[in-house]
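Schema walk-through. Below, the input block comes first and the output block second. Nothing else is stored per chain. Lengths vary across the set, and this one has 456 residues.
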Amino acid sequence: METVHQTRNEITEGVIWKQLLLFFFPILLGTFFQQLYNTIDSVIVGQFVGKEALASVGGSSAQIVSLVVGFFTGLSSGAAVTIAQFVGARKEKNANAGLHNAYAIAAFGGIALTFVGILTAPFLLRLMNTPADIMGGSLIYLRIYFAGILFVLIYNMGSAILRATGDSKSPLYVLIICCIINIILDTVFVLVFHMGVAGVAVATLIAQAVSAVLVTLKLMRSRGMLLLSLRKIRFHGSLLKMQLRLGLPTGFESILFAITNIAIQASINTFGTDTTAAWSAYGKLDAVFWMVSTAFGISITTFVGQNYGAGKIDRVRRSTRVCLCMDLAVSFILVAALIVARSFLFRLFTTDETVIRIGSDMLMFITPWYIIYVFIEVLGGSLRGRGNVIVPVIITLIGVCLLRIIWLAGVMKISPTIHAIIFSYPVTWTITALAFIGYYLWMDRRRGQNPDGTVR
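--- output ---
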């Protein structure tokens, strides 16, 4: 018989806009500090080692890391949705079993990826047309990163589980501590020991190991519905199927995004080191928007997951509308800020005027279109929170990934310019956003006809 707690759950009972903000801001700050890991790496090597090192840390190697981490972040979201629904329904036994199953997924995946990543790194870099003058640095960074990938997956899984219970503050505190460690070690390894790219890679590995340990200890000392025991970490057949059913589609969606970004990176690499370095720096500035959008996406997924589990369908609809309005407002402000401060921001990474000019031009061309992506993030997150993951992945596969690859194939033959290549982003975002809006409204009307909120 399930254990039932009668304590008030603010996510399912509190004021929607207030609870969304209270949940959103710790996630936003956490995402900021997580992004600061790689940003600090890029700033230090760009300023004190050179543009080749900047391109090594933030070019092809960053895209490969994004592909791998994105896939397991998707798996983590599957585990988080199931646990959030169990928490909303107050099913403690199932939630606790889901916790241990999720940790088993992270541990197994991390060990396997360590070996696969280290062995395939040279092949992956060559596949992306990585310039010869940054191949060595990129390979060093990538192999050291894969050596510590287990810690990355454990932290991501543990923090996703904490957020599923409504605790978005603990992952933030962990990231603040580890970001400080990373900054200190970056400085020491690069400026004192002159380790270059290897130095920032080792610093990141150590900081990520600390984050994995801290988030695991937090769950092991939990007094709430979820309590982690290392001896109980194992696969649970039915829960494994459930978490994979929800997590794999989102994970593959992340892979598809990463593959298209890799294709774009490979195209940009053909323009030389200056353009690769500019795209690398732009990727760090670009991440400012994505960390905000991702925080809203995580917030609405957990919020919807718990309310859907509690059977509060009207609250699911209202929270989605509120989150969409909030994300749109913040995105308008961010776009304006990035455009106004673009020159100053690029100078944080490099003093090379050619790199700054190319990067600023890229930013001006793409950032105004970020507003469109808000609909994809929020509506997709809301659908995932209800357990509806297949159709959003199909929409993303066709609207973003397939069309972007087709665009690139045509552009590289007809007009192989930087603008033509990166214009694939706004085109595919617009098509995908329209598809998400149409599908979400159609599903909402269906639920209006099914008051129990079931998806038939």
